[in-house]
């Protein structure tokens, strides 16, 4: 005899209810995404005062690094970062799609938001700007490559 035969509807109801309760408990036990504020720690550039044995902390100085050019569906995206005292102080979009008025419109609101989020997060772990998905992905990848280059 099969456990879920039609002549035992109560057993099916109990099993369906138990599965629903288990699924609900599992969903409620998931933790929501929280944005951790990570601090970017970079080594001092070679030739700086601290690397040459001078006074000061080991991570002083200003470095400017340009990330890789990332080809997106609508055109290339590339960013340049400035790091001062181990903190990301500036992110500039060097190359981005500008071929038509729509690209210009999208990037006029997307790039400032991406810059703001990168400076706040101090990393490439930033959200995608709605309506500028390809630019956001390219920006994030180029930013990550610049951060990786700055660490080495």
Structure commentary:
The protein is of the alpha+beta class and 152 residues long. The chain has two domains: 1-30; 62-151, Alpha-Beta Complex (Sufe protein. Chain: A), CATH 3.90.1010.20. Helix content is 39%, strand content 18%. It has three helices and four strands. Strands 1, 2, 3 and 4 form a four-stranded antiparallel beta sheet that branches. Strand 3 (75-84) and strand 4 form a beta hairpin. It is elongated. The chain starts with 8 loop residues before the first helix and ends with a helix.
Task: List key phrases describing it.
about 150 residues; alpha+beta; Sufe protein. Chain: A
What order do the helices and strands come in, and which of them pair?
Elements: H1 9-28, E1 62-66, E2 70-72, E3 75-84, E4 87-95, H2 101-121, H3 133-151
Antiparallel strand pairs: 1-3, 2-3, 3-4
Helicity, as a percent range: 25-40%
Low-confidence stretches: 33-59
Counting helices, strands and paired strands, the structural category is alpha+beta
**How many separate structural domains?**
2
Count every beta strand, where a strand is a DSSP E run of 2 or more residues: 4
Largest sheet: 4 strands, antiparallel
Series of H and E elements = HEEEEHH
Strand content: 15-25%
- The total of helices stands at 3
**Highest-level CATH class of the largest domain:** Alpha Beta
Looking at the structure, the CATH topology of the largest domain is Sufe protein. Chain: A
Radius of gyration: 25 Å
The gross shape turns out to be: elongated
Q: How confident overall, as mean pLDDT?
A: 77
Oligomer: single chain
- What is the terminal separation in angstroms? 68 Å
CATH architecture of the largest domain: Alpha-Beta Complex
